[in-house]
Amino acid sequence: INGTLIIRGAKADYDRIAALGNPGWSWEDILPYFKASETFHPAEWHQADLTVHGTSGPLQTVPHDPVPISEKVLDSFIDSGFEYKPDMFAQGEYE
Predict the structure, then answer these.
(1) Which of 14, 55, 63, 88 has its CA 20 to 30 A from that of 47?
(2) Which is an annotated GO molecular function term of this record (predicted)?
(3) Residue 95 falls within a domain, yes or no?
């Protein structure tokens, strides 16, 4: 059994790195590199934010199909007051 997962850091983290005196590390500076590294293959069921995904990079990415427990976990997060964003790469202030 093999699997791979791709996750980006939070926008706020990159912006803090830049604020510490590291020019070129803000979210806006680094997003083009994330996009350049990815070829995103949207899934029919997934509400992707295509502005944060690449189309011609070497890493082939696709959202995985949800597993049965996913809906229950998602519902519990929403019931706890967390905001739901269908595309985990669509960044908010602290995501």
Answers:
(1) 14
(2) oxidoreductase activity
(3) no
